[in-house]
Amino acid sequence: MGASVFRTGGPGVPAQSGRGSVTDSVWKVDGAILLVEDDAGDALLVEEMLADSALDSGLTWCKTLAEARRFLASCRTPVCVLLDLHLPDAQGLDLVTQIVETDADTAIVVLTGLAEADTGLAAVANGAQDYLVKGRLDPETLGRAVRYALQRKQVERAAAALHANELTARENARLERGLLPVPLLRDDRFETAARYQPGRVHGLLSGDFYDVVQTADGTVHAVIGDVSGHGAAEAALGVCLRVAWRTAVLCGADQLDHMALLEEILDAERAGPHIFATVMSLAFQPDGGRVRVVRAGHPGLLLRHDGEVDWIEPEGGMALGLMPGVGRWSPTDLDLAPGSSLVVFTDGLFEGRTGPDARLGEEGLLAMARQHGELRAAPFIDALVAGAAAGALPYGGLADDVAVLHLGWKQESHV
User: Fold this and answer.
1) Contact predicate 293/335, CB 8 Å
2) Which of 162, 302, 316, 386 is the most exposed place for a label (fewest CB within 10 A)?
3) For 320, phi and psi rounded to 5 degrees?
4) What is the CB-side half-sphere exposure of residue 402 using CA atoms within 13 A?
5) In angstroms, rounded to a whole number, what is the distance separating the alpha carbons of residues 287 and 290?
6) Phi, psi dihedral angles at 410 (to 5 degrees)
7) pLDDT tens track for 383-398
8) Half-sphere exposure (Cβ direction) of 408: Cα atoms closer than 13 Å
9) How far is CA 51 from the centre of its chain?
């Protein structure tokens, strides 16, 4: 049998919250009222009470739990359920549990008999917002219970969302420490500056990561990478790859071997074959005159010298994880004039929209970088990120997370 629909007061007022407002002493309830009761006499009593109350909302009557669950599954507005605990297809506190499982956002007011006060309290402990004794019902009590139940449910939802946000913030902080570590440098001759900027999809960090490590021979190794996708799994994979890279560097592994190792770990740890990563590895020689670059599907880099900025495209190779075991990567040796520095970044820096059908792009990023060529390391990368974010702001902001590294030997180290 389908649900029956009564009307009490005026028509139901669909809305997005359980708040009510008083207008001419009538409460407009932003949501539906569902009575789940198999006794026609009790249903008529509730209908009359609601009609005499100050509530302005529609009433839907279901005689079984199955009917109620079908109604809740199809209803798009907040619902307050007036729930009898003795139905043909279910009994007792299990009814409350099943209603909550069907729609966790539903407010529940349990209707009990005179001798079931303890059951009413237990129902509240199981997820209901209130309980009423049928033999003591009056329009004012019933109307107040419905309003309060909807308000309590709204507060519960807000508290749950706040708690979830706090958990996400703590998780982000832990992941960020793993993705964006403090550089491990043995002396102060090498200068680094880093910046991380979350994209607009900011429930969680993405898999952008970087690291800088100086080995005992004075070589400074750096890496920047970007795991495809967004979320905790991608961020955790990024942490895994960064830690593996640092371990390989400290163990003296060859720069080309780093890529093969990272791909092997990516293939073993990723959630599915669609996950891949772009990576760029750099090794700055201790004499300051040369850097070796190995690139796996990653964007190019910026070379800075005496206020000039150029775009450099080292020899590339396949991104990690696209065809495990097939990719080959070749090193590119770049000569560095004294005082030169390199800027490496993830693609979120230049992929943000700057128009309905336009993106900043590599050329736009280079043009912007040249406008700030005289800035020092940290202000320079801050200007790049700020410029990219400002250009994308009218179109929803940066679509992806951004990581940027500014790397180079200090001028005085070559004198």
Assistant:
1) no
2) 162
3) -70, 135
4) 25
5) 8
6) -70, 150
7) 999 998 888 776 666 7
8) 25
9) 45
pLDDT at 11: 32
* pLDDT at residue 5 tops 50: no
Backbone angles phi and psi of 95, in degrees to 5: -60, -45
Residue partners of 25: CB distance under 8 A and separation at least 6: 54
Calculate the CA 41 to chain-centre distance: 50
DSSP-derived 3-state class of residue 125: helix
Tell me how far apart the alpha carbons of residues 201 and 7 are, in angstroms, rounded to a whole number: 43
Query: Using CA atoms, how far apart are residues 43 and 31, in angstroms rounded to an integer?
Result: 19
What pTM did the predictor assign?
Answer: 0.62
pLDDT at 383: 95
CA neighbor of 123 nearest in space, from 101, 94, 151, 150: 94
At 51, phi and psi to the nearest 5?
Answer: -65, -35
Residue with tokens 């198999």: 38
| Residue 381, H or E segment | helix 377-392
Number of CB atoms found within 10 A of residue 250's CB: 13
The set of residues, in sequence order, having a beta carbon less than 8 Å from that of 251 and lying 6+ positions away, is none
User: Model confidence at 359, in pLDDT bands (50, 70, 90)?
Assistant: confident
Give me the count of residues in the chain: 415
DSSP letter at 30 equals B
Specify whether the CB–CB gap between 321 and 270 falls below 8 A: yes
Q: State the Cα–Cα distance between residues 125 and 187, nearest whole angstrom.
A: 61
Which residue type sits at 26? V
**Of 315, 284, 232, nearest in space to 405 by CA:** 284
CB contact at 8 A, 84 and 128? no
Counting Cβ atoms within 10 Å, is residue 92 exposed (0-12), middle (13-18) or buried (19+)? middle
- Nearest CA among 140, 134, 166 for reference residue 50: 140
307 close to 374: Cβ distance less than 8 angstroms: yes
- Do residues 303 and 309 lie in contact, with contact meaning Cβ atoms separated by under 8 Å? yes
- The set of residues, in sequence order, having a beta carbon less than 8 Å from that of 179 and lying 6+ positions away, is 196, 205, 207, 208, 209, 210, 235, 238, 239, 242
The structure tokens 């403090």 sit at 182
Tokens 């190019």 sit on residue: 300
How many helices and strands, by DSSP H and E, does the chain display?
Answer: 9, 23
| SS3 of residue 346 by DSSP | coil
What pLDDT score was predicted for residue 25?
A: 45
**Collapsed DSSP state (helix, strand, coil) of residue 147:** helix
User: Which uninterrupted H or E stretch holds 121?
Assistant: helix 117-125
